[in-house]
Amino acid sequence: MKPASKRVIVVGGGTSGSALAARLSEATGLDVTLLEIGADDDAYGDGILDPARAPEAWLGMQPVAMTAMQNGAGVIPMIQGRLLGGTSAVNGLATLRGLPEDYDGWAAMGLSGWGWDEVKDTFIAAETDRDFGPSPIHGDRGPLPVRRWRRKEMGRAQLAFYDGMVELGVRTVDDINDPRQLPGLGIFPVTVDGDASRVTTSRAYLTPQVRARPNLTIRTRSEVTSLIVDKRRVKGVVLSTGESIEGDEVVVTAGALWTPNLLMQSGIGPAGHLADHGIAAHVDLPVGSTMSDHIGPGLRYRHDGPRGGTAGPAQSLLIGASNGVDIDYHAFPIAPPLRDGPTEFVMAVFLLRSSGKGSVRLAERPGEGPVVVAPPLPDDANERLRHAFMRIAAWEASSAARSLGCTPVDPLDLTAPEAPGIARERYTISYGHMAGTCPMGTVLDADCRVLGVEGLRVADASVMPTIPSGNTYLGCVMVAERIARKMMAQERV
Ligand SMILES: Cc1cc2nc3c(=O)[nH]c(=O)nc-3n(C[C@H](O)[C@H](O)[C@H](O)COP(=O)(O)OP(=O)(O)OC[C@H]3O[C@@H](n4cnc5c(N)ncnc54)[C@H](O)[C@@H]3O)c2cc1C
């Protein structure tokens, strides 16, 4: 007799959840149900596919969940994609891996299977790099089509940034995803198809063939409001309609803010905090007690004439070093907020390596979004920002910047000693790289199983014990790919 399939429920069909559900459903011994609160990814027309229109999402015009982060000086607005594909449908498309040291650091924490050599293989397996694959560090068989923007696709401000940095003598690199080439200045790798349309993880992984699998059910507009927990064993989920769905294993991939929120609402979290909200803890774990992000000042500029180009916001990138080989900040201009709006751009400066931890906590009233506190910048932040600001000041004087007719919207003497402090207070923004809210090591084991609870895993940005030195989307895909493989190996399916 054929053994019954194991029922796996994936909560959240975003960046990680789409990849996870697609990979798990390759195993016919698994019966996979993917539950996504938002609509399918074709519900919003071409707006999502056009990289140049990403900033519309950032203004809340596309399907997003708006939240806010408390940051000493004020409140930083934050968005996350709320549709199949999740934040991969509204982000800046930058497709970066981070550095070997990031993942070797995870392995050094005792998290076996997460060192660079292992995760590098997963990055390679996930991509089809149209510029550099196949090669020892790039793949040509994976679901994600990756290439670098071409100069003719880039906006005028982005080209001026790149050219101005070259004028200043900054070394250029062909491939920012090749750690051997760094530090340097390069063009962002992005996940786009042949005509430069965005490819979300739902489009890359949940292809029509995958959706047709009899062991995969995708339910959109399905909000999970709690997990069914019985004697420290998760047995399924409850939807906002009151419907219960039973499963043998639940994997939560609702993103770095909503995953800890759901766990805490379900009685999995810090017992004291849950008690304050009248929730009995099934297990006392530091869920949401840590959160990393890349935050930093975004300096706004205005320039003459049209924006130009067709590419998305993330185009040219400087990964700089202030002390030896340490990569400690990067600066890149992003597009103006609207296609036809004023020609403004943001020179974003953030510390890639940042050890400060914020937090995610339940809101006072049930059903409201989580309360998010930004991570503090490290003690040496001003020194590192000063280094970056000196470089940007030099860029302002370059002939590339001058021929763009570029002026700061809110002038600040970047060379003044007090500039970093002022900029931090006035212009700090989040780059949307929230991570590490249910980290491996304290909340999860190295296979991303929730400690002390049977039948429950997490597999999204929440699991990262430290934030990688780069944008986080590709890392989320890597996590999903690795957890899918681990689950399939453990089930022998
Ligand atoms: C504005 C912005 C720009 C960015 N730009 C870049 C970039 O250029 N490059 C880069 O690498 N990274 C970028 N990032 C970060 C990156 O996109 C994210 O780290 C990554 O996509 C997060 O993936 P995830 O799977 O953890 O969560 P998500 O992709 O957010 O997926 C979570 C999913 O869960 C669903 N969900 C939530 N709650 C529930 C529930 N209760 N029930 C059912 N479903 C639920 C959501 O609708 C969503 O689909 C950006 C982020 C932002 C906000």
Structure, described:
- With 493 residues, this protein is α/β, with parallel strands linked by helices.
- It has helices at residues 15-24, 54-58, 100-108, 116-126, 156-167, 201-205, 208-211, 255-265, 271-276, 381-396, 399-404, 419-427, 473-491, and strands at 6-11, 30-35, 64-71, 74-81, 127-129, 144-148, 184-187, 189-191, 216-219, 224-230, 233-239, 244-246, 249-252, 268-269, 283-284, 295-302, 316-321, 327-334, 344-351, 359-361, 371-373, 407-408, 428-430, 456-458.
- The chain has a single domain, classed as 3-Layer(bba) Sandwich (FAD/NAD(P)-binding domain), CATH 3.50.50.60.
- The protein is globular, with a radius of gyration of 22 Å.
- The two termini are 16 Å apart.
- The model has no long low-confidence stretch (mean pLDDT 91).
- Bound molecules: flavin-adenine dinucleotide.
- Residues 11-17, 35-38, 58, 79-82, 86-88, 91-94, 96, 223-224, 253-256, 258, 262, 314, 432-433, 460-461, 471-474, 476 line the site of flavin-adenine dinucleotide.
Which stretches of 5+ consecutive residues score pLDDT under 50? none
| Category from helices, strands and their pairing | alpha/beta
Per the principal axes of the C-alpha atoms, what is the gross shape?
A: globular
Task: Give me the CATH architecture, please.
Answer: 3-Layer(bba) Sandwich
Q: Compounds present?
A: flavin-adenine dinucleotide
Q: Might you state the CATH topology name? A: FAD/NAD(P)-binding domain
Give Rg in angstroms. Answer: 22 Å
- How much helix is in the residues? 10-25%
The N- to C-terminal Cα distance equals 16 Å
Number of helices: 13
CATH class bucket: Alpha Beta
Number of domains: 1
Name of the CATH superfamily: FAD/NAD(P)-binding domain
Q: What value does the average pLDDT take?
A: 91
Describe the biggest sheet?
7 strands, antiparallel
Beta strand count: 24
- Beta content: 15-25%
